[in-house]
Specification:
Strand order of the largest sheet: 1-2
Shape: rod-shaped
Strand content: 5-15%
Structural class: alpha+beta
Helix content: 25-40%
Number of domains: 2
Radius of gyration: 28 Å
Length: about 150
């Protein structure tokens, strides 16, 4: 299925004739956009397809599972979730004093470090901080300011 989708740049589906819902869910996780699955009101009815078909409660579980997988797969655009935004400052880190730093002392990897929370200068700016002069005295763990 994935080979066909990649080789021909097309959407793919899966025709599931297995018992249960697991294979259909796996197909969706692999990119199937259409699932064909037999459905019956009662597996004990006469006919060739009823035994391997889903009953209403199973179909509902399969559809719910598919929707959960679709949501988990996302749309390919990475944006912070509401819970990530709420925890952003607590999860990220800031550049802080590793020890007491005197005014006019040069920031170096020996006197600054990185700690939580992330409400100060980002560690992504580390190289820009190193070599700068302290504009004030700092106590250990105090947020560095430029």
């Amino acid at each position: 299925m994935t080979t066909i989708a990649n080789e021909f740049n097309v959407k793919v589906g899966y025709s599931d004739h297995t018992e249960g819902i697991e294979i259909s869910l796996a197909a969706v996780a692999l990119g199937a956009t259409v699932i064909e699955k037999h459905f019956t009101l009662n597996r004990n009815m006469k006919g060739p397809d009823h035994k391997a078909s889903l009953e209403p409660d199973e179909l509902k579980k399969m559809v719910n599972g598919i929707r959960n997988i679709e949501q988990a797969m996302g749309n390919g655009i990475k944006i912070p979730s509401p819970s990530e935004i709420k925890n952003k400052a607590a999860a990220r880190k800031s550049i802080v004093a590793a020890k007491c730093i005197s005014m006019d002392e040069i920031f170096s990897s020996e006197n600054i470090t990185v700690k939580r929370p992330g409400n100060g200068i980002s560690p992504m700016l580390w190289d820009g901080v190193i070599g700068s002069k302290a504009k004030k005295n700092y106590m250990p763990d105090e947020l560095i300011e430029l």
